[in-house]
Amino acid sequence: MDRDGQRVLFHQRLALRWGKYSEVGKLNLQNHLMYITDFLWRSLFLVIIVYIFLQLWRVVYASQSVELVADYTLPEMLWYFMFAETIVLSHPQLSGRIDGDVKQGSLAYALNKPYSYVMYQYATFASEVVLRTIVNGLVGCLVAALAVKAVPVSIKGLPFLAISLLLSLTIQFCLLMAIGLLAFWMEDTTSVWFVYQKVLFILGGMLLPLEVYPGVLQRVADALPLKYIVYGPARLLVKFQWSSWWQLTRGQLLWILGLAMLVAGLYRMGVKQLNVNGG
Amino acid sequence: MSTVAKLGAFLWEYFRANLAMAMEYRANFVIQVFGMVLNDALWVFFWWLFFNRFPQVAGWSYQELLLLYAVLTLGFGLGIGVMGNCTRLSQIIAEGHLDFYLALPKNVLLHVLVSRMNVSALGDVVFGLIVYGFSGAVSWGNTAMLFAISILAAVIFVSFAVLAHSLTFFIGNANALAGQMFNALITFSSYPGGLFKGFARVLMFTAIPAGFISYAPVGILGERKLDFVLAMACFSLVLGALAIVVFYRGLKRYESGNLVSIRL
Q: pTM of the prediction?
């Protein structure tokens, strides 16, 4: 076969390989679109929490008699919080599903199928996150705009923000997958997820931008992947700069590389010790 | 034996049985309880960071926030820990699992509620006691007030959950709606009451009854603590009665699906 033939074959295989996962994603998306009202109900929490934080920050800015906290104005702070909350609320509890698959043995059925279990989960996770982010984002933007009567968002940065969000959900997927896979060795991973979620709230910068924390805590957050999930994209929304976008993207890609290797390792180790009784 | 004593004994026996069942998987029990303590501790850590940067929030200090968390976690842990099914009521109604309870000679609502224990909520009880210990407000009087207010908070949590989930009798499976309503109650309860003014404050003493919980430190440390507890007790009684009435009104509309299920 000549070089052109080999190239065509390679592209065909690649299309076949990734095409099936994009079909899985599309199917999952269609499935979730059937329950769009359920998604809207869940957005109600976003409305409540944005309202509460609006009250909290109003009181803080007024009591401190300042225009800026860290380097955020009040509208920027509220939009930052709204978007950080949108990101977190748009991520389903994947680790619970994986935990269930491992314990109930459903994972065994995926082993003889012509797809990778991990990639299958990624396709379903990503499609659900995209839909949830759009719904939550629209509701959140409306609430934040009405609350502070300002939209401190850089429009030119939005397409690049979409890339950051895609990388953010990939990091989150790897971490949740790793927690779920711990079910091979632990009886229940719910507690691990609970604690992880709270650490993400704090060190990921969901509740407060990292600049508000003491220096020691900022350094701890810098050493972890969590700020690339929430803080990075949320800050970009209100303070877009090319240099910070590139810095964020580089960090996200490096963490994805490391975490993907961790997930692959955990999955291989787990599957080796899988025992299936009956069917 | 009086009716109240019988109900108390029934509650106690169920609690013991549920606890023994949970303790069967001891490692899992410890992980769940400890996990919840850690989970709550991280919330308090967040607030420590916040108060470290902004020492006064709407006139509240960090000590008052610790007392709020003591009441919130103790109330939630006692209510949801013992009556674990109150947050799953819609599912039980919608899937026809009420049939089992209807056939037995016990109070249906109480029986459904206590049939399941929420193990992780017991971690909230442990955390509530720890955080109270660290609040710097420990005294005999304050401890009595803390327990009185926490028990009333537990009544509010359970009653509100029953009310919200009973909507399933009237509008079909209201699991998502009831879940959101209960989440709203917990969320509003976990922030200093002083933050909310006007309509939000009215809402917190009516439709989303988080007001008494988020003002709990006033009840423990304030000058008119007895008035506070009395008002909270009246409110809890009314809410509890309303939940019972709505549940039994709804129960009249319940239609069995003849589901055959086994309880293990």
A: 0.87
